[in-house]
Amino acid sequence: MKSAVIVFPGSNRERDMVTALHSVFGSAPELVWHGDSTLPDVDLVVLPGGFSYGDYLRCGAIAARSPVIADVVRKAKAGTRVLGVCNGFQILTEIGLLPGALMRNASLRFVCQLVNLRIDNNESAFTRGYRLHDVVRCPVAHGDGNYFADEATLDRLEGEGRVALRYCDERGELTADANPNGSQRNIAGILNENGNVLGLMPHPENFIEPLHGGTDCRRFFEGMAETLEAV
Amino acid sequence: MMKAKIKVTLKRGVLDPQGKAIEHALSTLGFGGVDEVRQGKYIEVELEETDEARARAEVEAMCETLLANTVIENYEIELAR
User: Fold this and answer.
1) Residues in the active site (chain A) (predicted)?
2) Phi and psi for A90 in degrees, rounded to 5?
3) How far is residue A66's CA from residue A63's CA, in Å, rounded to a whole number?
């Protein structure tokens, strides 16, 4: 069960991710600097949250052109699981591994709060720890999490079951009030065509220990561990 | 030397919350008749290339590769000596 977490200048959640992976997988992930040209041979690659390059130009834009990214793309296309959280999600859309873009929150406010997520696809390696339409509490912390894609892309994502997670209320209803950033169709996380790449704005790594206030998100990592160990 | 002046703007139909906030502030300040405020980016790049066609091609490549996210943004290039 081998994993790697890529570190960019300005990443600030990589240690939380390392702690979460270590805690569930039983082995520490390797930290890989963005300037490296190749990744180690691993089952899971994580792009963590933070503010790579200070979010200059656009969130994730400069990180997406880092030397290590060519190998991330190569591995993703070959089927390696790639997880992008928050800034990592922004980077995945900038790379083009996931469609659409993350824009400034519609409220123009930085949001830092607990949200409810509805699991809309529980067949991926990342979400198989849950039942379909489970409601999971998870923290968000971002200023640019407003998911945008054109209507045709949104229809295609929904049609192909690639919307993995949506913002919802406590009962699993997709209301505007439950949407912290104005994302189209309450989208919080999406999968690529093959289901081996997931990008999401919320931070599951920050809700896995009782000290965090809840452990709802531990199942994400447990589900991943089960999938990857079965590989 | 040439200077490229690059304007990056959000595509039509893409919500621009910053533009909306500016619009609201302008109307609060008493400027009437203001509508559809859009915020964009302005980037200047100095180039050693002196051939205009080659310079434009190079700046277009820069826009497509990094400076604009063509999923949501358009760009305009103006070259000056």
Assistant:
1) 86, 203, 205
2) -60, -40
3) 5
Q: What is the pLDDT of residue A228?
A: 83
- Domains for chain A: give ranges and CATH numbers: 3-230 (3.40.50.880)
Q: What band does A227 get if pLDDT is binned at 50, 70 and 90?
A: confident
3-class secondary-structure state, position A134: coil
Give φ, ψ of B58 to 5 degrees.
-70, -40
Of B14, B21, B66, the CB nearest to A148: B14
- Interchain CB contact of A61 with B (< 8 Å): yes
As for the ipTM of the complex, it is 0.85
Kindly state the tokens that stand for A59. Answer: 């969130």
Rounded to whole angstroms, how far apart are CA atoms B19 and B37?
A: 5
Is the CB of A149 less than 8 angstroms away from the CB of B69?
Answer: no
Mark whether A203 is an active-site residue: yes
Please measure the distance between the N-terminal and C-terminal CA atoms of chain B and give it in whole angstroms.
6
Task: Give the CA dihedral A202, A47, A154, B23, nearest 10 degrees.
Answer: 70
The DSSP symbol for B66 reads: I
What values do phi and psi take at A9, rounded to 5? Answer: -60, 120
CA dist B55 to A152, B48, B50, Å? 35, 9, 7
Burial B38-69 (b: 16+ CB within 10 A, else e): eebeebebebebeeeeebbebbeebbeeebbb
Do A57 and B66 lie within an 8 Å CB cutoff? Answer: yes
* Average pLDDT for chain A: 96
Residue A231 has pLDDT above 80, yes or no: no
Kindly identify which residue of chain B lies nearest to residue A144, measuring between CA atoms.
B17
